[in-house]
Design a protein that fits this description.
The protein has 6 helices and 5 strands. It is α/β, with parallel strands linked by helices and about 180 residues long. α1 packs parallel to α6.
């Protein structure tokens, strides 16, 4: 992707953007976290990239397929579009060292706390790494951000919008 460097917000998915009911993958089960759509829209309005980086071990355990995850992401995008927001790219890691399905049984650098998903996005998009950050709800999310040399915010509930807007303003975004 060509263009001027822009900062990015890397969102974890389950527990940050959508309610984590355990291996969520059916589009009809999408339930948004309070303020999630508004948070993504704020990132877009600030002119920043918005990415999703999510571990999806349910694929490796045989609970659902990669196609199911893509359909879930399509539903997220459709709903965000109705709310005036968009995710620039979704990246997921289906691998787990103890996956039931052999094809997915590996210790991948893309599985958080590994930084692989973040680093791949930063290599493909013109990301201003110094101003970028991740929002996650688990220690593995925060560790992945640290390993990718970006800041992280620990989402512990409440309005995701308020957390993201405060973080954007700290980094000089005009919102």
């Amino acid at each position: 992707m060509n263009g001027a460097r822009r900062p990015a917000v890397f969102f974890d998915r389950d527990g940050v953007l959508n309610v984590d009911d355990g291996f969520v993958h059916r589009p009809e089960h999408l339930r948004w976290i309070d303020g999630a759509a508004a948070a993504v829209r704020a990132v877009n309005q600030a002119g920043w990239f918005a990415f999703v980086v999510t571990n999806q071990a349910g694929i490796g355990h045989g609970y659902h397929s990669e196609a199911d995850v893509r359909a879930f992401h399509a539903q997220m995008s459709a709903h965000l579009g109705e709310q005036g927001g968009r995710i620039d790219e979704y990246v997921f890691c289906p691998y787990h060292p103890e996956a039931r399905l052999e094809a997915y049984r590996q210790d991948s650098p893309h599985r958080k706390p590994g930084p692989g998903m973040i680093l791949d996005l930063m290599s493909r998009w013109p990301v201003d790494q110094a101003r970028s950050f991740l929002v996650g709800d688990r220690e593995s999310d925060l560790e992945a951000a640290a390993r990718a040399s970006i800041d992280a915010y620990h989402y512990r509930g409440g309005s995701l919008y308020e957390l993201v807007v405060a973080a954007l303003r700290q980094r000089g975004a005009a919102i």
